[in-house]
């Protein structure tokens, strides 16, 4: 036993599993309370109370919601592709949660599951896989509204992924690394948002589109598509789509915090508590997401495509060009 | 540890590739292809080509296959047979081409024209991405730029086809 324990491979796997378990459960807990926060903030923005019956100030509402979802009848429509219909909701949650494997929550090794030297690319890869859940969910339901929602979302996510990937290149040029740990360390003195305000703006807009949040929630436009891709989903399968959306919001906000807002960097706190800075910035960004949702109306489809291809994409390319020229000039001028 | 992972990923790649051609539902086939690409990315990681692995997932699994799926869903293929060449003939051609390829491979191995990689040692683990960037933008700069121009030409062609026949120009006749 002692021999197994002293094996470095075993130790690595063991600690990775411990960290994965902690982060997984912490994030699932946080996600359910982000949903509570969304309902509460929405309530206050519309001059009402929001959920306030279950527990003190409605704090047990998420628990009640999940219990309710579990006990709802599960319905599989006739003519649905059964296997894909079951897989789609899982695909909504898994990529969003895997992203947290590379996010540095704090300065020491204990706060990051694994520091790989292509961390940012892993995030982009996972977010590009996120399209599948919605597309497949919409297609396998054998429902035309769901299919339309799914197709819309694929078009939207592919369009905005480009601008999102390009907007991160400015940060890469500044930090010279794809590892998220190194990117945070490079922001010790100044957050990258100070040098890359345009990229930050583009990233946040594309983040809203990637997570299908208002004003980019066309895939689930309830006025025209019933409920979009999850029209036919009920019970906890619908719950998983819901969970996936908010887990995506959290993971994309974590990446935004890491790339542009200095990650865990902040004054006063000792190293072991620096993760509080991370969560403070993360909460601010999540609040921003909710705020936007309850403020702006939905875009029209052609407006959405025009914004993505004719405004955000050229803007992000120009941003890369300017950043590269300035960096070159500073190094060689 | 590495051999076990290699076998696992290799099984995923080969098994899914087989399912792509054996499964009757085109959407399921496309999904198995995605899984096969992900397994391939795993193999790249084992070779310490992590940049290649991630790009494999982003470009092939994340972008190209989504477009593929898009097209398949639009076509809404209900039947798995199409018009055109008779089925028997098509199967015969498939076998013939496959056998030629197999013979070609066997010949190459037998005549030792494909000795495999000369240097079996793995590249250094750190800085793989940087190394790719360095070689791509110095030694292989010309092929790299030529490829980008090729892609641009293809893109312009796609836009032209996608726009379809436009209105005839004023004063001219419709082509």
Helix content of chain B: over 70%
Radius of gyration of chain A: 21 Å
Write down the secondary-structure element order of chain B: HHHHHH
> Which structural class should the secondary elements of chain A be placed in?
mainly alpha
Unreliable spans of chain B are: none
**Which residues of chain A sit in consecutive blocks of at least 5 with pLDDT less than 50?**
none
Biggest pleated-sheet summary of chain B:
none
Quick one: CATH class of the largest domain in chain B? Mainly Alpha
- The percent range for strand residues of chain B is under 5%
Please report the total strand number of chain B as a whole number.
0
Number of domains of chain B: 3
Instruction: Count every helix of chain B, treating DSSP H or I runs of 4 or more residues as helices.
Output: 6
Total individual domains of chain A: 1
Q: Outline the biggest β-sheet of chain A.
A: none
What's the count of strands of chain A? 0
Indicate the mean pLDDT of chain B.
80
Shape field of chain A: globular
Decide which structural class fits the backbone of chain B: mainly alpha
Helix content of chain A: 55-70%
């Amino acid at each position: 036993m002692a021999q197994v324990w002293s094996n470095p491979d075993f130790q690595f796997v063991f600690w990775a599993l411990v960290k994965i378990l902690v982060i997984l459960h912490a994030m699932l807990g946080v996600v359910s309370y982000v949903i509570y926060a969304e309902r509460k903030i929405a309530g206050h923005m519309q001059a009402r109370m929001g959920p306030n019956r279950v527990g003190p100030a409605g704090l047990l509402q998420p628990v009640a919601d999940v219990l309710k979802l579990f006990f709802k009848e599960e319905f599989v429509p006739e003519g649905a592709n059964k296997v894909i219909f079951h897989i789609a909701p899982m695909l909504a949650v898994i990529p969003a949660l895997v992203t947290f494997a590379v996010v540095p929550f704090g300065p020491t090794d204990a706060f990051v599951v694994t520091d790989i030297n292509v961390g940012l690319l892993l995030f982009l890869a996972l977010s590009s896989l996120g399209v599948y859940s919605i597309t497949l969910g919409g297609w396998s339901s054998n429902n035309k509204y769901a299919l339309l929602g799914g197709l819309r979302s694929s078009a939207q996510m592919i369009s905005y992924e480009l601008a999102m990937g390009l907007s991160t290149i400015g940060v890469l040029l500044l930090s010279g690394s794809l590892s998220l740990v190194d990117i945070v360390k490079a922001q010790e003195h100044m957050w990258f948002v100070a040098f890359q305000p345009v990229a930050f703006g583009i990233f946040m807009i594309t983040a809203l589109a990637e997570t299908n949040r208002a004003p980019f929630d066309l895939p689930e436009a309830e006025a025209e598509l019933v409920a979009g891709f999850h029209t036919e989903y009920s019970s906890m399968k619908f719950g998983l789509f819901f969970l996936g959306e908010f887990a995506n919001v959290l993971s994309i906000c974590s990446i935004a915090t890491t790339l542009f807002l200095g990650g865990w960097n902040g004054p006063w706190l000792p190293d072991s508590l620096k993760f509080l800075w991370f969560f403070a910035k993360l909460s601010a960004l999540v609040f921003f997401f909710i705020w936007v949702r309850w403020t702006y109306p939905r875009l029209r489809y052609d407006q959405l495509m025009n914004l993505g291809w004719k405004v955000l994409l050229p803007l992000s390319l120009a941003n890369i060009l300017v950043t590269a020229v300035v960096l070159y000039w500073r190094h060689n001028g | 540890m590495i051999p076990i992972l290699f076998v696992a990923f290799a099984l995923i790649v080969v098994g899914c590739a087989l399912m792509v051609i054996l499964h009757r539902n085109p959407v399921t086939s496309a999904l198995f292809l995605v899984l096969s690409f992900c397994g391939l990315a795993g193999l790249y990681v084992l070779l310490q080509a992590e940049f290649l692995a991630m790009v494999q997932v982003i470009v092939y699994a994340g972008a190209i296959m989504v477009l593929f799926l898009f097209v398949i869903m639009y076509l809404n293929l209900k039947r798995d047979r199409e018009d055109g060449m008779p089925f028997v003939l098509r199967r015969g051609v498939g076998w013939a081409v496959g056998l030629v390829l197999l013979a070609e491979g066997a010949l190459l191995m037998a005549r030792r024209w494909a000795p495999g990689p000369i240097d079996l040692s793995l590249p250094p683990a750190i800085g793989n991405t940087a190394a790719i960037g360095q070689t791509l933008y110095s030694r292989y700069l010309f092929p790299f730029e030529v490829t980008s121009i090729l892609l641009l030409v293809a893109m312009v062609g796609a836009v032209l086809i996608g726009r379809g026949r436009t209105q005839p120009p004023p004063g001219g006749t419709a082509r």
